[in-house]
Amino acid sequence: MTGSGAAAAADDRTAPALTGWRPVRATDTGLNGRAARLLTSEPTDDAGWPADLPPGTTEVVIVEDTPGPTVTLRVQTSGDAAPKSARVRFDQLAVRDTYAER
Q1: Is there a contact between 88 and 60 (Cβ–Cβ < 8 Å)?
Q2: CA–CA separation, 53 and 8 (whole Å)
Q3: CA distance 92 to 50
Q4: Residues 94, 18 contacting (CB under 8 angstroms)
Q5: Would residue 11 be called left, alpha or beta, if left means φ above 0 and alpha means ψ between -120 and 50 degrees?
Q6: pLDDT tens digit string along 7-35?
Q7: In a designed cystine with 20, which of 48, 66, 86, 100 is the match (CB 3.0 to 4.6 A)?
Q8: What angle do CA 58, 62, 67 make, to 5 degrees?
Q9: C-alpha distance from residue 71 to each of 4, 32, 37, 57, 86 (Å)
């Protein structure tokens, strides 16, 4: 490829794989039970303390309906291991767009 086509191809390789996902908003409701992706490798709670999640966790399940007054959501891990729950700032989470879920 030459010109801007090569640049676009390079951008596609480095872009995060979040197609169909959007950041959680403070005003979101109906989040309980929805899968979420962590937008950071070191999620924190409202005070900036590390969230107590296993290292390498990239996806969690939200177990509250909406972000609370402390701007956090309780989440838990999913998979084969016993679930581990923690509070994570809402702006460190992404959920699937409602269009992508259909």
Answers
A1: yes
A2: 36
A3: 12
A4: yes
A5: alpha
A6: 444 444 444 455 789 999 999 999 999 99
A7: 100
A8: 115
A9: 41, 15, 17, 20, 13
DSSP the chain: --THHHHHHHHHHHS-S-TTEEE--TT----TT-EEEESSSS-B-TTSPBP---TT--EEEE-SSS--TTSEEEEE--SSSPP-EEEEEGGGEEEE-HHHH-
The answer to whether the pTM exceeds 0.85 is no
Write phi, then psi, for 75 (nearest 5 degrees).
-130, 165
